[in-house]
Amino acid sequence: MKKAAIGPSAAALSRTLIVETALAQIDRSGPHGLSMRSLAQELGVEAMSLYRYVRGKEDLLEGVITRLMGGLASSLDEKLAEHWQGFLQTVAHEVRRIAIDHPRAFPLVATRHPAAPWLRPPLRSAEVVNAFLTALTGHGFTDAQAVGAYRSFSSFLLGQLLLQSAVRGAETGLVEVPLDEDGAAIPQSDGTMSLDAAPEVRRLGSLLSRDHSAEEFEVSLEALLDRLDQELSQ
After folding, report:
1. What pTM value is reported for the model?
2. Which of 62, 38, 26, 36 has the alpha carbon at shortest distance from 183?
3. CA dist 167 to 33, 61, 160, 174, Å?
4. CATH architecture of 73-233
5. CB under 8 Å to 170, separation ≥6 — which residues?
6. Is the dihedral of CA 104, 106, 111, 112 positive or negative?
7. Which of 10, 84, 95, 150 has its Cβ near the most Cβ atoms within 10 Å?
8. Stretches in the chain below the pLDDT threshold 70
């Protein structure tokens, strides 16, 4: 088999470059079309050289998600928390911008595992959720109300933005990928952070982990029906 040509990018190969190139491929053809071989070919390197920086496709997809969502936490300026409605509006519009800019990649945010098993996409970062809960409890929300708001807000964003992504050509099914392969020289932990740096997430872990999905569905449905009934009566 003919070896891939070593291009000028080989000397500058890095995890950042690999992840950026992977995201560009996903933007063009979706995550199902991404492979380590196609990625290496585009970068002009041997496929095995990628494993110095990523463990395999699983690790690569985690890197892509981190790249997509990485700017969200930094966009949540402390001043935004002075008004909780404005804070939530900023979060919503920032996540929507990600979905609009990268519609084929956005479903990965929903289908890959989050930083903790009881966090919900698309607000899957412990840092972002910690900021969310801190902002709401700081404005008088009880613990239960803050967690309920997080759940409702996440469901609203995910439903709306997955639909918008699908309209723009995204495949919303699960992406079948192998587990991380052995042999990576640099172990990675993209998409994770110690909960020691997210005290509100740790403190409210028991509330966050409870399954109220059936109740939430009924509440959301009733709210929708009430709004439609109000519109009809106007």
Report:
1. 0.75
2. 36
3. 19, 22, 11, 17
4. Orthogonal Bundle (1.10)
5. 30, 103, 104, 106, 107, 162
6. positive
7. 95
8. 1-11, 77-81, 113-117, 169-194
What pLDDT digit, counting tens, does each position of 48-102 carry? 999 999 988 888 998 999 888 887 877 776 666 678 888 888 889 999 999 999 9
Q: Tokens 């990600």 label which residue?
A: 98
Q: In the numeric block, which tokens belong to residue 62? A: 């985690």
Tokens of 183: 């042999």
Using a 10 angstrom Cβ sphere, with 0-12 exposed, 13-18 middle and 19 or more buried, the burial of residue 1 is exposed
Here the tokens at position 148 are: 């309920």
Alpha helices in the chain (DSSP H): 15-29, 36-43, 57-75, 84-101, 107-111, 126-137, 143-167, 199-203, 205-208, 213-233
| Gap between the Cα atoms of 163 and 69, Å rounded | 19
Owner of token pair 């080989």 = 10
CA neighbours closer than 13 Å in the CB half-sphere of residue 222: 6
- 């996440």: which residue's tokens? 154
Which residue in the block uniquely carries the two structure tokens 């969200």?
72
